[in-house]
Amino acid sequence: MATKVLMVAEKPSIALSIATALSGGRMSSRRGSTEVHEFDGTFLGYRVQYKVTSVIGHVFSVDFPPKYQDWAATDPLTLFEAPVVKSESNPKAHIRQHLNREARGCGDLVLWLDCDREGENICFEVIECTGFQANDGRRVHRARFSSVTEKDITHAMKNLVQPNKDESLLISHYSNNQLEIRFAELLQTH
After folding, report:
1. Which residue has the higher pLDDT, 96 or 69?
2. Predicted model pTM
């Protein structure tokens, strides 16, 4: 039985372009929360079964809990102590469950998210959803690409890198800053 490799792109159209380029157009597709394209190929010298799917932007968002959402009824001072909660950005899409299900049985994860800090942050959201961990024997790779041409996709596959946790943390910090900005706006209205 061939090893399985899960590839996750930032959006469905990119997943389709990646699968088409790497399979030569010889793939099967099935529905999930987002489409999954499957084909056989070679990865790091081994015969593998590829599964290519996508997220639809960020998997998670951060906000104050529901009891703090009504700005008119919220004492601004309570926000200093209010927890920040992480939740699915689009719970009806079931992306978290989709990624977890597709990752089962996969030995490698290849992340095809945009090559900017937001994309790097989404990489770590995907890693969390798939359950891949540094010490479980499975490997995580990051594809760096500037377009979805066959040439760029092939080049990215030959030059995989590790995702950058430091860049991801910058975006996580930025998200928390956005909550602080909302808090400052609230203070100005009271």
Report:
1. 96
2. 0.83
